[in-house]
Design goal:
Structural class: alpha+beta
Number of strands: 9
Low-confidence stretches: none
Largest sheet: 5 strands, antiparallel
Oligomer: single chain
Radius of gyration: 16 Å
Helix content: 10-25%
């Protein structure tokens, strides 16, 4: 079984900008440079055959390259408790359109459709219960921006869970055209 997801790796200057923000909050598991990505579709556990079908279906996606920029910091959570600290992206529309095409390709390969609303972001940290407050950090960096950067490919990754966090391995990259 393979644990798969489809994502975009931001360019090195953007990753370095995000890494420079990290720190200063107790009990937070910060993402490493290798973990910084824009998820387009989490697929989950699939067998080798479905994985091959997904890889082939992703190769059929047609979408023009486009630019996005970082835009603010926020949190996701459950029951009023933040669980994820993230950096936002604008504009949303091209990322949502690309997400929809990736989801459709996954469905053609036999994966159930995505059930959650899509919110484009880059995860910065996972927050453990009882960890320090990220509210101050979110407020300090609410105006986070970056120069526009080009999105010209997507990639299929495998995620292997480890005690120190997930390890991501690139399976295949697909140019946007």
């Amino acid at each position: 079984m393979h644990r798969l997801f489809v994502a975009i790796r931001p360019p090195r200057p953007v990753r370095e900008q995000l890494l420079a923000l990290m720190g200063g909050v107790a009990g937070v598991r910060w993402q490493t440079e290798d973990q910084l990505h824009i998820t387009l579709r989490f697929i989950g556990e699939v067998d080798r055959h479905i994985g091959s079908d997904i890889a082939a279906a992703l190769g059929s996606i047609r979408h023009p390259p486009f630019e996005v920029s970082l835009s603010g910091i926020g949190t996701f959570g459950r029951r009023g408790q933040p669980g994820t600290l993230w950096a936002g992206l604008v504009p949303h529309e091209p990322l949502k359109a690309l997400h929809k095409k990736v989801d459709q390709a996954c469905v053609r390969a036999g994966v159930p459709p995505e059930g959650r609303a899509y919110h484009a972001h880059i995860t910065l940290a996972r927050l453990k219960r009882g960890s320090g407050s990220v509210q101050g950090m979110a407020e300090t960096h609410a105006g986070l921006t970056s120069p526009p950067f080009l999105i010209d490919s997507i990639a299929l990754f495998e995620s292997t869970l480890a005690p120190e966090g997930a390890v991501y391995s690139l399976i295949e990259r697909y140019p946007l055209r």
